[in-house]
Amino acid sequence: MSNQGEKKGVSALDFFCLGFGAIVGVGWAVSINSWMSDCGGPVPAGIGYIVALVMMVPIALCYCELVPALPVAGGGMAFAFRAFNDKVAVISGWAAFGGFISIIPWEAIQITDVLGYLIPSLTAGDPLYTVYGTGVHLTTIIIGVICSLLLFALNMRGLASAAVLQKILCFVLVGAGILGAVASLIKGDASNWQPIYDTTNSLVYGSAADGYVEATNSNMIGGILAILSTAPFFLAGFETIPQGVEDAGGDIKSVGKTVVLSVALACIFYAILLFCFGYAWPWLEFAQPTAVGGEMTNPAAATMLRMLYGGAAGEVLYWIITIGALAGLFTTWNGFFMASALLLMGMARGRLMPRIFARQNKNGIPVPALLVCLILSLIGPFAGAGIIGDLTCFSGAAFVLSWMLTSFSLVRLRKTEPDLERPYKIPGGIGMGYFASIVSAVVFVLLFVPGNPVYMGRLAIIMFVGWMVIGLVLYLASSGQRRGVSQAELKDGVFHGMEERKHQA
Q: Band of the pLDDT at 293, cuts 50, 70, 90?
C-alpha cells in the first residue's frame, strides 16, 4: 500500500498496534456490562475469554506461520489460493471481506453514540427517522461522515502514515484500560462478584424493552460458552496484520509473531477488565443499570468508575475511560479501513473480483478499493445503531469461516509443499493445524444450531447467507476475466513480487 521508502517505517511494533488496536476497540468500555449479563456474571464471562484464548491462539499460530511464508496482501484468501484453488480462495476472501466491512459501518455508528455521552446535545431532540426502533439524528450522520472522510484521507497517504496514528491511539487505549483496572482494584471488594452465576432476572432488574439482556443459560458452563457467540467479533482484527505485510520492512518473521501476540494480549486484556470491573461494583447492578437508579448509563465502565469514586476523581476517571474508548474505536475503524482495501486488492489480483480494484496509484495506494471502504463507511451513520447486534453476529460467523479455511490451508500446505520456505514454524506442527481446524469448524457449525449458547440468531444467519450469495454472483460475473487463464497464472497475480519481498527481508 505504499512505496519502498515507506516500508522502512512500518515496524513489528506498528503491526502489533495495528492488530491489537483493531481487536480491542470500544467494546471493553461500552459492552462489558452486557457481557456480564449475557454470561451470568463477570466470572463466567472472564473465564469465557480464557476459553476463547485457548481457541484463538492455535488459529493465530496458523497465521503466524503462513504470513512470513506467503507475505502478500490477501491473508487467508492468498493462503487458500496457494493450498487449494481460486474457488476456495474466493470463499475465504469474501467471508473475511464481509467481516471486515461490517466493522467499518459499525464503528461509524458507534462514534456518535460515544461522543453523545460526553456531549449529550449531539443526540438531543427528535431523530430524523428510525431504523429497527433506533433513532438516527442529523448530528450522527454529520459526525460519521466527517470521520469517514478523515480516515479515507489518512489511508490515502499509505500504511506508514496510518500506522503512526494507530500507534498513538493504541497507547491511549491501553493506558485507559490499565488505569480503569487499577482504580477498580483499589476500591473494589470480592463480594461484588457474588453471585458467581445468576441469570439476572429481568422482572427485578429491568425489562427487555429497556434494553436489558437476560442470560439464557441455566448453568455456569453455558454462561462461559456464551461468550463464544460474540468473541469472534470482539477478537477479530489480527487478520489486518497479514493484509499489510507487503509494507513490512526488516524481519517478516516478527510480523507473523505479532499476530499471536495481539490475539493473546487482547483475550487477557478483556478477561482482566471483566474481573476488575466486576470486583469494583456489585455486578448485578453493573449489568442492569436501573438497579442503581438509572444512573449506570453508557459508557458503562466510565460511568461505574465515576459513581465508585465520586467528586473530581470520579469525573477525571470518567473522561479518561471515555477518551480511551474513543481511541479504541478509531484504532479498530482505522485498522479495518486499511485492511479491507488491501484484501479487496488482493482478491482482484487473483481475478476473483473485478480487476479495477487491483489498481494502485504511483505511490502504491489501492484507490478504487479504498473508495469502496469509504462508501461502506458512509452507509453506517445513515443506518443507525438498531442493526448493531445482528451485524456483530454476522461478522463473527464470517470471520470464523475465514479462520477455518486458513487452518485447513496450513494443514494442506504442510503436506503439498513441505519444502516451502517457512521463516517460522509453529510449535506442534501439523498437529496444531489440525487442532485449529477442528476448533474453528466446531464453532462455525454451532453458530448455526439453535438452542446452544453460541447460536447467532435467525437474522444474522440470513445476512450471512445473503452475503455469501452476493460473493458467488460477483465471482461468476467476473468469470470472463478468468477465461483461458490457468490456475498457475491466477496464482502469479496473487503472489506477484512475493519472492523479492522475502529476499529483501
A: very low
